[in-house]
């Protein structure tokens, strides 16, 4: 073997071997490749169907079904007695750092079905509620609105639960030109190569934790959440566009006779509503749809147990439980006040009489 070739092989080996050992060590430690995404010209990215992975926080199991939703496969065709609701949003809805059964929409599903099974005859005795996890990490409101329309045309929904995403301050997808959109799609493909690596995800985890700790992730107040999300402010033009997207979702649901509710998620220690959060609550009130605003509960100074450690945004298992119960109370109140046949009445079979 030529001396030059031997040197080259030695140089390559000195890089590849540590990476290989690091990859194995990270997998033994519980890390896996993160969830993979499929480039989508309309939405930017969607979850790759039929994949098994783990959550980036906590390394808990994630199963993505054939339709690209986290959770069990959807029944086809939907049974007549099934009420199918899609939970839309970003990382909190996806269940960042929690098991799928512990996510807030699954808490809501169990509460609805427990009451429906306990009903005495009539519709309450046969109705089955199915809350589908349609959360996609990183989505902004525009992507969520477009995803809602796609789902409505494909999956026979009876309604939607739309959660605040915290991502509109940095994610501009939906306002990009053709060249910028193409760059995003190329980036999705490239990132998938890295995301498949346990070593890469360990490095991202270490980097993220250091940023959160530096920001004071367990501190009270808006500072840590602002550092984590970049949210908290919006120009008049940005707010107008945001409100227009909310109004388009309300109009679409109204025209399609689908139930719709908004959930205004809150950050740890948040003292007041940020502009986009306030806009969501105002749009819901103006559109006469339920809004579950958790700011008063999750913004409290003693709410640390409701969030993941060193995280100012993502709820813990207890936090998801609380959100699910607040949603149940709010949706049942709306169902009780709704006239027969109104979209909000779809929850009535799963609510107290």
Explain how this protein is built.
With 353 residues, the chain is an alpha/beta fold. It has one domain (35-179, 210-350): Rossmann fold. The chain is built from eleven helices and nine strands. The longest helix has 26 residues, at 3-28. The chain starts with a helix and ends in a 16-residue tail after the last helix.
List the helices and strands and how they pair.
Blueprint: H1 3-28, E1 37-40, E2 44-47, E3 51-54, E4 61-64, E5 82-89, H2 91-94, H3 104-117, E6 128-135, H4 141-154, E7 159-163, H5 178-195, H6 198-214, H7 222-229, H8 236-256, E8 259-264, H9 275-287, E9 291-293, H10 295-298, H11 317-337
Helix pairs in contact: 1-6, 3-11, 4-8, 8-9
